[in-house]
Amino acid sequence: MRALVRVQLRIALQTAALVLAVIAAIPALLAIAPGLRGVRPLGLPASWLLPVLGAQPLWVLAALAQLRRAERAERDHPRPAGRS
């Protein structure tokens, strides 16, 4: 059982690291390309749209991938004897 918990913790930490890297990259992108600050698609500043249109779908996709990987780990992990 501990092995399964370790595998799922590793999966969760990998997912969190990926999400954190992408979310940290959004302000870095705005800092590196200051021309994006003046861009106003749909009448909204790009500095608002990038986090909303970039981060929110990322959370959803990361959560689905996390769930799929955790379920696969549970399926692949052998159950202790005497448990169903």
Automatic annotation (TrEMBL):
It comes from the Bacteria. This is DUF485 domain-containing protein. The chain crosses the membrane at residues 12-36, 48-67. The lineage of its organism: Bacteria, Bacillati, Actinomycetota, Actinomycetes, Streptosporangiales. Keywords: Membrane, Transmembrane, Transmembrane helix. It comes from Actinomadura montaniterrae.
